[in-house]
What does this fold into?
Amino acid sequence: MATSISLVYAQSQSSHPEVPALDQLKNQQELDRAGAALDAALFDSYNKCDLEKFSSFFIDDVEFYHDQGGVTSGRAALTDSVKKNICGKTTRELVPGTLKVFYMKGYGMLETGVHRFHHPGHEEEGVGEGQFIHLWQYKDGAWKITRVISYDHHPAAK
It folds into this structure.
């Protein structure tokens, strides 16, 4: 990736934030900003249970691998799972300093990090923590997640 300070933003076809098109990302700093913006928007919709917006971040045949929940195939099944198991029960917080974004030539980006899960109104359940990998593809003017791996879930250190 060549270095450049200029950014040309591409408006995605969905309600996602304006994030540069893949071919407009000129350096690691721009890639990091794009990954952070997408992550923040995705989990804002997750935490608010905005299922329509949440669903818009995934391709139709997304694959979601969870170390405790197994495999969920497809955007509709993933959205339904969030509706049944997350909405009103769990919120997600990115652990500061853990987000890493890697360029995937001709495809998009790989995002990794650590997140914490809170249970508002049910603090006795404690705070959980886990690692994640999101594979983002830039295609047809939009960033979408094609694969998710969520693993190493455990109680967060106190």
